[in-house]
Amino acid sequence: MELRQIEYFVAVAEERHFTRAAARMHVAQSGLSASIRALERDLGAALFVRSTRRVELTEAGRALLAEARRTLHTVTAAREAVAAVQGLLRGNLAVGTIQCLGGIDLPRALGRFRTAHPGVRIALRQGSSPELIDEVRGGALDLAFVSSPPDGSAAGVRLTPLEQQPMVVACAPGHPLATAGAVALAELDTETYVDFAPGWVTRDVTDHALRLAGLSRRVALTVNDVHTLLDLVAQGLGVALVPESFRHKQTSARFVPVAGTAPVWRTAVATTADRDPSAATRAFLAAEHLALPVDRALPVDHDAVP
Q: Which of 140, 236, 259, 278 could cross-link with 182 by S-S, CB 3.0 to 4.6 Å?
């Protein structure tokens, strides 16, 4: 088993497509396919179920994927250790982010990091918080800026708080609540809602708050991006509970505070709980003053301290 075969295997497993995996690895598809077949022969097991449109992992492939990612992480750490001795920072930084992130100007932060560390290859992916947390847990992302689940935890992942802000009621300009000073959640009991798809943390926060208040609701319009949600609200197709900062994304809709204790939307930096972060990850978080939890700090080599 060769390191290149492991890299090709992980690329196919993550892309679910041989052509995309070959493009990602900058090799001919025929060469990548031959390498995967050789790996399967070496292991004595099929790793993928191939179809004309999609590639899926077999049970053996799923078992190998976790170990393969750990192997690549170890190799990366070894390369980084040698580079560190030479005073260099190299490697990869794979970052995930939700839409409309607050608490950090991510494009500017990544730009600063690229200037300071041109030897690090930066990759960015945008998605929902559950997707991003899964990819941090699985090793596909080094870190991700996500919405914190209502209970503030996620298995296998560390969530370092970034920002919190109250949720507000978004409604159309002509809605009866648009001119209210504040709106009690009970006043929304008969309203039609616009919201994100089930599983999105922003929706989970709203569902949790309404459940605690003993309220139910009807979500008639489900979307997967912030701007469409606010456009639908502005046209009077429903109301929504959204983070307060969303008011800067849409000028037509009206945003009214929640009376009493408002639901809170929290964002966090997600890092894996099972592996030490890469040198690039540590450098990026340090540059943005985003400290890892104490139990994730690197051990000090006391023999090297004068």
A: 259
Strands 157-171 and 254-257: antiparallel
Taking a C-beta distance cutoff of 8 angstroms, is the pair 206, 258 a contact? no
* Residue 51, number of CB atoms within 10 A of its CB: 8
- In single-letter form, the type of residue at position 290 comes to L
C-alpha R_g of the chain: 23
Q: How many CA atoms lie within 13 A of 224 on its CB side?
A: 7
241 bridge partner residues = 169
Q: How many helices (H) and strands (E) does the chain have?
A: 9, 11
The Cα-based distances of 253 to 50, 150, 265, 276 in angstroms read 48, 26, 20, 44
Specify whether the CB–CB gap between 264 and 212 falls below 8 A. no
* pLDDT for the residue numbered 101: 83
Q: How far apart are CA 193 and CA 172, in angstroms?
A: 12
What is the model's pLDDT at position 244? 93
Q: Where are the alpha helices (DSSP H) in the chain?
A: 3-15, 18-25, 29-43, 59-85, 106-116, 129-138, 201-212, 226-234, 279-287
How is residue 154 annotated by DSSP? B
Q: Are 84 and 279 in contact (CB under 8 A)?
A: yes
Q: Give the pLDDT confidence of 255-304 residue by residue, as tens digits.
A: 999 998 889 999 999 998 877 788 889 889 988 888 655 444 333 333 32
Segments in the chain below pLDDT 70: 80, 83-89, 291-306
d(CA 36, CA 275): 27
